Amino acid sequence: MSFTFIHAADIHLDSPLRGLEKYEGAPVERIRNATRDAFKNLVDVAIDKKVSFLVIAGDLYDGDWKDYYTGLFFVSQMSRLQKEKINVYLIRGNHDAQSLITKELKLPDNVIEFSVDQPTTKINDELKVAFHGQGFRSRSVTDNLAKAYPQKVDGYFNIGLLHTSATGREGHESYAPCSIDDLREKGYDYWALGHIHLREVLHDNNPVILFSGNIQGRHIREPGQKGCTVVQVKDGQVDSYEHYSLDVLRWEVCEVDASTIDTVDDLIEATREQLVQSYQQAEGRFLAVRIRIMGSSNVHQELVVEKDHVINNLRSMAIEVGYGDVWIEKVKIETSRQIDLDELKEQHTPVASILEYLDAVTGEEETLELLLEEFKDLQNALPYELKNAEDGFDFTDTTLMKSRLDEVEDLILHYLTTKVGGETS
Q1: Is the dihedral of CA 97, 100, 101, 102 positive or negative?
Q2: Of 96, 114, 236, 256, which is the most exposed, with the fewest CB atoms less than 10 Å away?
Q3: Which UniProt keywords apply (predicted)?
């Protein structure tokens, strides 16, 4: 028997894309609908390739529905597949565990869901395929579910659906942990795994074991291509499997080395070159980019002092590069100064005296505590967004005060030092 099927996971329908700075020109509507549009792409691929069935290895939803629209959207897409006689086999994961979803809709007959109480087997006699799976009853499942899965059904192509952290992956909770040997000993032909959002092949043949990854990146920690895996089966064995991109908005990190850059204009041009390349690789998708500017650089002080000016010029440039389809998610300035402070302090200039005073203050906890007391009223008056942003103001912690004093040094060096005949004065 020969056929084609799709393995997808971690759809997270209607999950908000997080960590995005809002500014004029941001593609708000396209971002809000990103997970739905990616899911439509999944259904399109299934129909275009005339697949025999689709398996979804957990986390179809991102949690309990705010309203019934999320469920109605899923039903509408399943009806498209039902019209093409394409069945869908799915399990629940930690985000759409039975205990989390309080609203339910009757699903089309082509959608087959596995029990959350124990592993069960669904048989497709026409294709000679046996599906084995168990969903999550509650969000936190720490048992090795794979141990209880049944052995293969002889004479059938056997597929296991499992939402698992496997042997553990950074950035993911340890749910339904298992080893590759646990999976191999069942004798299945293919294991469709979910939960890990980065595509990864754990075993490439006899059986094929892989995480298909999520179909749409939701934040900057999920960069690059996202999609599903299309599997070709010939004569009862996996013949090939390949990734198909489904994402409509792609996340990328653009790292710019500023160590050899002398002006902000040159920095923006260097960033432009990287963005042009990333935009071309995105193949027409929206691109959400985090820019990291790094290195010991001559423009460090200017980047600190003129931060808003630099960031908004980078945003303007990105809009131009992508014709409105490149969005700067965030700009992280992580440069350091090239000026030798010890050399400056030895010159006995007014600037040197100020720098020495700041050094002294930084080392005196009592003085810092007095400064915090002076700033108490200012801290209370700060707007919420300034106090709670990732790099927000906080005058209640001496550690953060010390880091702010570093910025004061940069301000002084920018405004009070000049280059005269190659010498700093």
Answers
A1: positive
A2: 236
A3: Exonuclease, Hydrolase, Nuclease
Q: Burial level of 260, CB count in 10 A (0-12/13-18/19+)?
A: exposed
User: In total, how many domains does the chain have?
Assistant: 3
Residue that is last in its domain, among 204, 230, 247: 247
205 and 102 co-located in one domain: yes
The tens digit of pLDDT for each residue in 196-211 reads: 999 999 999 999 999 9
Q: What is the pLDDT of residues 251-276, one digit of tens each?
A: 999 999 999 999 999 999 999 999 99
The total of other beta-carbon atoms located within 10 Å of residue 255's CB is 14
Domain encompassing residue 333: 249-338
- Do 188 and 125 belong together in one domain? yes
Same domain for 328 and 356, yes or no, is: no
- The residues, any chain, with a CB within 8 Å of residue 219's CB and separated by 6 or more, are 17, 18, 19, 251
Residue 100's pLDDT is what? 87
As given in the structure block, the two tokens for residue 40 are: 């439509």
Cβ–Cβ < 8 Å for 97, 116: yes
> Tokens standing for 44?
């399109």
Q: Are 286 and 385 contained in the same domain? A: no
Q: Which pLDDT belongs to residue 222? A: 93
Q: CA-CA distance, 80 to 47, in Å (whole number)?
A: 9
Same domain for 151 and 260, yes or no, is no
Collapsed DSSP state (helix, strand, coil) of residue 257 = strand
Verify that 254 and 240 share a domain, yes or no. Answer: no
Exposure string (b/e) for 273-305, b if CB count within 10 Å is 16 or more? ebbeebbeebeebbbbbbbebebebbbbbbbbb
pLDDT computed for residue 417 by the predictor: 54
Distances from the Cα of 395 to the Cα of 182, 223, 354, 359, angstroms:
53, 34, 21, 18
Strands 190-194 and 200-204: unpaired
CATH assignment at residue 82: 3.60.21.10
The pTM of the full predicted model, rounded to 2 decimals, is: 0.79
Domain-ending residue, one of 338, 368, 393? 338
Asked whether residue 102 falls in the same domain as residue 228, the answer is: yes
Token digits of residue 71:
């469920």
> Which tokens sit at 236?
């009862």
Alpha carbons within 13 A on the beta-carbon side of 106: 1
- Are residues 87 and 225 both part of a single domain? yes
pLDDT value for 347: 57
